[in-house]
Amino acid sequence: MTSLADPLTLPHGPAWPNRFSLAPLTNTQSHPDGTLSDDEHDWLVARGRGGFGLTMTCATYVAPAGRAWGGQLGIASDEHLPGLTRLAESLRATGTRSSVQLHHGGRRSDATLNGRPNQCPWDDPDKGAVAMTTAEVEQSVEDFVSAAVRAERAGFDGAQVHGAHGYLVGQFLDGRHNRRDDGWGGSFEHRTRFLLEVLRGIRERTSDDFQLALRLTPEGSGITLDEGRETARQVLASGLVDALDMSLWDVRMAPRTPGEDGLLIDRFTDLPRHGALLGVAGGVVSTEDAAWCLERGADVVTVGTGAILHHDFAARAIADPAFVVRPRPVPRAVLADEEAVGPAFLDYLARGWDDLIA
Ligand SMILES: Cc1cc2nc3c(=O)[nH]c(=O)nc-3n(C[C@H](O)[C@H](O)[C@H](O)COP(=O)(O)O)c2cc1C
């Protein structure tokens, strides 16, 4: 039987020590220029020490125009390299594998931070976003690729392209809005081109040891379930990625598309993987939840909230079949003192996730 403690072999790079991955978690703890702070370093290194097989950074901006939050980590210039290098070294020392989530906010960037209108595949006056020129689209592909090259130079084991949650990559996939007629929109083939060119470019310009992953939304934000599934199928068949993480919000949820029965997870676990790993995320708060994901056919269990509540969620779940996270809401001092959650992250959580913090 598959166990949560089993190591995992990937097509490229080193094996992961077990099946737990830290979810990418925006924590707004970076310096204003996107360089790493001690609080962000300590938060992630504690998760490495806490037994996660893979430790993933927050959504990290690949270009200044894609910054979506104050305090977001950057990988857009070589000025970000010293902090990232220090982080990669510290993570390696804990025994975890490491990855940077590569992100561009597109129309959901923060124009007030960036001092320019947001970029988007289409004109979006409501969001004050302006359609990218063809040259800007090509530059943006290059920004993702350069960022991945930088991640490898910093010493990370890999990078994950953030194709989920309706940010720039997801905006290109959006069948409701992306009607570009320059080869980067319109048909399904043209809407998936941005994603595939980013993945191809990264594969070409990083070494055979570098682990490339992708995160996708299964449906919603202009992506039908059929198209979400087809994108995942094509990416897995392309041999470009080592891992695909499906961001389900709740691993036990049903499709939102009317008339679709069963569980959303099953629409992705049944796709041929061609050696890549399939991860799932959403609502895993106990060993039982995590084991259920493996029984259902996932290779990797991605944990977000549970890892905020316990830096050592992975180690605890591997050691104890009855482990369940602590009751919420949790006093600030507990998360600060025991779980290495810094003040800026605590404030961010208190603003957006009021059930988490007392
Ligand atoms: C505070 C917070 C920050 C998040 N930041 C990101 C992010 O930077 N990138 C991303 O892909 N998902 C992000 N997510 C989504 C999580 O990665 C995860 O998919 C989601 O929270 C569901 O998993 P969970 O129930 O284990 O938390 C965030 C979620 C939370 C709660």
The helix-strand sequence is EHEHEHEEHEHHHEHEHEHEHHHH
Helix proportion of residues, in percent?
25-40%
In percent terms, what proportion of residues is strand?
A: 5-15%
**Which spans of ≥5 residues are poorly predicted at pLDDT below 50?**
none
Biggest sheet, in brief?
A: 8 strands, parallel
* Strands, count: 10
**Over the alpha carbons, how many angstroms does the gyration radius reach?**
19 Å
Shape field: globular
Which CATH architecture is right? Alpha-Beta Barrel
Structural class: alpha/beta
Average pLDDT works out at 97
Ligands and ions found: flavin mononucleotide
CATH superfamily: Aldolase class I
Q: Predict the CATH topology.
A: TIM Barrel
* Total helical elements: 14
Secondary-structure blueprint:
Elements (H helix, E strand, L loop, with lengths): L19 E3 L15 H12 L4 E8 L19 H14 L2 E7 L7 H4 L3 E3 L8 E3 L2 H21 L3 E6 L4 H6 L14 H4 L1 H13 L5 E6 L8 H14 L4 E5 L18 H4 L7 E5 L5 H9 L4 E4 L1 H5 L3 H7 L12 H8 L3 H10 L6
Parallel strand pairs: 1-10, 2-3, 3-6, 4-5, 6-7, 7-8, 8-9, 9-10
Helix pairs in contact: 1-2, 2-4, 4-7
Bound molecules: flavin mononucleotide.
Give an overview in words.
The chain is of the alpha/beta class and 358 residues long. The chain has 14 helices and 10 strands. Strand 9 (277-281), helix 10 (287-295) and strand 10 form a beta-alpha-beta unit. Helix 2 (81-94) packs across helix 4 (134-154). The N and C termini lie far apart (40 Å). It has one domain: TIM Barrel (Alpha-Beta Barrel), CATH 3.20.20.70. The strands form 2 sheets. The chain has an 8-stranded parallel beta sheet with strand order 1-10-9-8-7-6-3-2. A two-stranded parallel sheet has the order 4-5. The mean pLDDT is 97. The site of flavin mononucleotide has 23 residues, from strand 2 and helix 11.
